[in-house]
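FIELD: query
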Amino acid sequence: MTGLATALRVEAVAWRRSTVVRLATPLLVLLVPAACVGLVALARSGALVGTGGAKLAGFGGADAAADQLTAAGQVLSVAVLLAGGFALAAAFGVPLADGRAGGWFALAVPRDVVALARAVVVLAWAAGCAVVATAVVVACAAVTSALDPGAGWDAADAAAAGRAVVAGVLAAGLAVPFAAVATWTRSPLATVGALIGTVAVTQVVVMLGGGAWFPWAVPSLWTGTGGEAAAASVPGAALALTAAVVPAALGALVVQWRRLTDV
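FIELD: result
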């Protein structure tokens, strides 16, 4: 436990100083909220017609604040997965590809503990970004409600905010398996390819009707991307299964690094 605590502190400091954090964090906590507010404003303006207007029709309801928070959940379920996947591709794939991970074998802390700490730090960063992004959207929604005399913060807004947070955190967890992919392939590009492939497969699974039980589709469907009926079809057990991806992926990662004999 002492070794893990030390590794977590070291990895947290290193991750905070990384280029990935400096680039991705503003995108998640500022660009995503801006996109959510913009989507709702665009939907309510009626400027889009045809296919684009039909896709945004769900964000043109009477409660703009709730729509903004619903959009946050839908956007975060994809954005956090992609950001987390890219981050883990860099965190594991790059040092394995250029040989720097060989230094882990000489550390006093076992290499599997270092790998676990690195994955946990990236997971915490991605989940934290999801929470902060939701908080920014909540602030925007509060302003929207204040500017609308007939609106106010209600149970629908609170429920939408809660769903956005849960969806973002679940999406962060769904990125963790790509640390194991990066370890297996020893390539950041291959890991990114696997991430993109997973997103594509998710779309196919949803089209075939199996999205309610496919972890990588659950957060998006649960927040209403496929409509209210699709959101209602996602059972609590599917959410639990999605959350279980994290411990399973971390366990697989630890086993990988424990058995790793060369880099």
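FIELD: remark
The chain has a mean pLDDT of 87.
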